[in-house]
Write a structure and sequence with these properties.
single chain, 273 residues, alpha/beta, seven-stranded parallel beta sheet, 10 helices, globular
Length: 273
């Protein structure tokens, strides 16, 4: 298979590309930091916020391999901070990378897949695309949007022999959390949401969260299943308690789920006005 993997310089994307290449597939790893793309994977420069860069990346693969059988959208990051304090510029960048960048790539690869009468798009989302928690509003918004686009796209392209699958990891042992907490501190490390931000940082540093984390290999293996299985599921959830978390968010009243979330992150009772 000819596979294009984004975010191939680190974390889930890097390991997914590496394992696919080791299995004999022709893998192109797209990233801004191409020097970090693993050996055995063809590096492709990509800036998801730049339309010309997206078009050039897809053309690079098509010129070299003649087709793209599978697109795996792994690239993304977490913009954390209160909705009130996160700048619109930062919010816009979150949506540009996590949603619009993935959409640009899907638009770029679909004509070739339609012409071939087959293809697969795998979007790496998150459990954060199923429910939202305080201080992660823009990240959750980006993943909710990616989930919706994936569902719409799946219904549109099935007639052309193309399938769309979503992978929803819970906590994963990567540097993603460090970046997210840095963004949190920048947006809400001082001011009215400071105590809440401090408690979230403490939560993500706790032994309880570490015990819940999936390894990068565990998630990458699921991404590969979603990419290669003959009849993929529409969604693959990864991580301890993932199914339970989605069930609670779906069936509990909103305010009951809010209270569970506050307790989980140690927020306690609502702050005084």
């Amino acid at each position: 298979m000819i596979v294009l993997v984004t975010g191939a310089s680190s974390g889930i994307g890097r390991r997914t590309a590496q394992l696919l290449a080791a299995s004999g597939h022709q893998v192109y790893g797209a990233a801004r930091r191409t020097h970090d793309v693993p050996a055995g994977v063809v590096p492709v420069p990509l800036d998801l916020t730049d339309d010309a860069s997206v078009d050039a990346a897809v053309r690079r693969v098509l010129d070299d391999a003649g087709a793209i059988d599978v697109l795996v959208n792994c690239a993304g990051y977490g913009e954390f901070g209160s909705v009130e304090e996160t700048s619109i510029d930062d919010a816009r960048r979150q949506l540009e990378v996590n949603v619009l960048g993935a959409a640009r790539l899907m638009q770029a690869v679909l004509p070739g897949m339609r012409a071939a009468g087959s293809g697969r798009v795998v979007n790496v989302s998150s459990l954060a695309g199923e429910f939202a928690a305080p201080l992660g509003g823009w990240y959750h918004a980006s993943k909710f949007a990616l989930e919706a686009l994936s569902d719409s796209l799946r219904g549109e392209v099935a007639q052309f022999g193309i399938d769309v699958a979503v992978v929803q990891p819970s906590y994963v042992d990567t540097g993603w959390h460090d970046t997210a907490m840095d963004r949190l501190s920048e947006a809400s490390g001082a001011g009215p949401y400071q105590r809440m931000a401090e408690r979230m940082r403490a939560y993500f540093a706790s032994a309880a969260v570490v015990r819940q984390m999936s390894t990068v290999d565990q998630v990458a293996q699921v991404v590969i299943r979603a990419a290669l299985e003959r009849k993929p599921r529409t969604r693959y959830r990864v991580g301890r308690g993932a199914r339970l978390a989605v069930a609670l968010a779906t069936y509990l009243p909103d305010r009951t789920f809010d209270a569970l979330t506050r307790a989980q992150f140690g927020y306690g009772r609502p702050e005084a006005a």
